Amino acid sequence: MLSNLRICAVSHQTISSVHINNICCYKVRASLKRLKPHVPLGRNYSSLPGLIGNDIKSLHSIINPPIAKIRNIGIMAHIDAGKTTTTERILYYSGYTRSLGDVDDGDTVTDFMAQERERGITIQSAAVTFDWKGYRVNLIDTPGHVDFTLEVERCLRVLDGAVAIFDASAGVEAQTLTVWRQADKHNIPRICFLNKMDKTGASFKYAVESIREKLKAKPLLLQLPIGEAKTFKGVVDVVTKEKLLWNSNSNDGRDFERKPLLEMSDPELLKETTEARNALIEQVADLDDEFADLVLEEFSENFDLLPAEKLQTAIHRVTLAQTAVPVLCGSALKNKGIQPLLDAVTVYLPSPEERNYEFLERISRLLLPFADQHVEIPSLTAGNIALTVGLKHTATGDTIVSSKSSALAAARRAEREGEKKHRQNNEAERVLLAGVEIPEPVFFCTIEPPSVSKQPDLEHALKCLQREDPSLKVRLDPDSGQTVLCGMGELHIEIIHDRIKREYGLETYLGPLQVAYRETILNSVRATDILDRTLGDKRHLVTVEVEARPIETSSVTPVIEYAESISEGLLKVSKEAIESGIHSACLQGPLLGSPVQDVAITLYSLTVHPGTSTTMISACVSRCVQKALKKADKQVLEPLMNLEVTVARDYLSPVLADLAQRRGNIQEIQTRQDNKVVIGFVPLADIMGYSTVLRTLTSGSATFALELSTYQAMNSQDQNTLLNRRSGLT
């Protein structure tokens, strides 16, 4: 099962004798037994990495290639930009597969879950390993749907570089912005691939401009397209001034020719390429001082004399510094431009030794991942990505150490070294590798097993799925005793429900999907409470006074403060119980039973009878805080979503009219080629089931993307309507 397989990224540096690894879980399957029989599984796989024809390399070179020859990359993009199709072509041209898979046919290597093949989308990340021209490439294909954005987050944190794929007819889209921000957060060098250059409406210039304007990035044009849309037939390599043309008679895109541009045969294209190359040289020189010195000293008179290798080396440095992004183009579906993209991955993206990692990892049993297959290996050197088996108590974001004492010793050493270096690099903070920021769920629903006897099986299934997917939250409703699923969206919960059925054989029942509201208070209130209870021959007596007040800064958890009158001695023995009681009280607000946020709780008085248990202290504090929250003026907060709708001009009016009925707030209407892009905000409660309505309004031609923006206060009328509906009055 997936929960017993973990993918590890191995760092390239060692701190003394401490061996630490960062665990990141991706989709890997030991078998495909759970897939539906009708799903085509018969793929022809070629040799494993390191095996070229009948020439078998040494086992050491297969398992442990030189670290400078390793590339750990991720594929990221907006949904339907062509990530999985590009990955499929990469695997084919690298010799990993012997036939081209297709998303529509449901036979791609990395989309091997039944749910992915049926829907034609990537749901979980998948890892594959292959070789390209002497380089070992560990590639992870990530989802593009906003419901599964955590999958992208937990992949990027262990990768050295990324390929951002764009639909050339759409440019930067909603989820593109999200994954780009995630890459910025983890300081991931990246290159851009403008896919679908053969598509009607494809525009190289528009796509590049959207990267510059929307992502605030500096694109380095390493290629120019030869034709666009139906006339697209190849690319020009700006660095080498060569044209790459694919054989129109070739079915798989393997056959293409690379020819130098000549004045006699291609005068206009040569002129355009020369201008583009000169502009590229000037752009790189502005960003890299070493390259600027080289150009000024040796090639200022004639840029044509500048060797391509010198320019590539400078672009590599600029890419690593993340001051600009190389841009390439092609069409994965039409099998054009993938081989140059692979070359760019090896030339411009970093090896593990060029990235700043802190630790080396050592694990007993290791496997090399090949999507739904794996091969056991005896050892693994730094810089690689591999699979480990049997870590039953680990989850995404965990740091694994050889022992607690060695970890503490490393922390102390790192702290001393950090002080010596004037805290230039605070190693003490990096002994534990960065975890994953898990977004808060916005939807929830109840889930019930087919019978009471199956409840333990359901709990086991949910426990396994939570380890695999930290964005899935499961809680128990204290009033009804029902199990509640909390997820990132309608599709997310639908997939979880389907997986429970397919993978664990449980026919569960879901309650109606509900929005995850939150609550807050509008004024300061004080409350007191006394708990006086005798259990056996022991009396438990607690007196508490607290104040609850609203705060301006957004905080999901309550801010806890203590008055000066609270003695340090009492606080020392009771602090944990006090804070546990406050957190417990804020889990369920007085209006809807939703979590309370943006509040500060101040403890003004606490009197404890000798012998009173900490459990009683916690219970009394919790009850007192609940009293204060009930006394205050209360406010419901609802999730507000960023919405982006791409629609043809002819359907713009009905779409805008429909959004107005959904309490939508339109911020901007942009023009994207022949389409209009509506950007705005809309409450999540009013956008449920929107995909069906939008298809009806636009005859299936429009697309939309949603992302949580913030939680906003409901107006009094909407809040009263919601409360009446929840209480059964309407």
Automatic annotation (TrEMBL):
Molecular function via GO: GTP binding; GTPase activity
One annotated Gene Ontology cellular component of this protein: mitochondrial matrix
Xref: InterPro entries: EFG2, EFG_II, EFG_III, EFG_III/V, EFG_V, EFG_V-like, G_TR_CS, P-loop_NTPase
CDD domains according to UniProt: EF-G (cd01886), EFG_III (cd16262), EFG_mtEFG_C (cd03713), mtEFG2_like_IV (cd01693)
Domain Tr-type G residues, every copy: 68-353
Functional description taken from the UniProt entry: Mitochondrial GTPase that mediates the disassembly of ribosomes from messenger RNA at the termination of mitochondrial protein biosynthesis. Acts in collaboration with MRRF. GTP hydrolysis follows the ribosome disassembly and probably occurs on the ribosome large subunit. Not involved in the GTP-dependent ribosomal translocation step during translation elongation.
Stated name of the protein: Ribosome-releasing factor 2, mitochondrial
Organism: Theropithecus gelada (Gelada baboon)
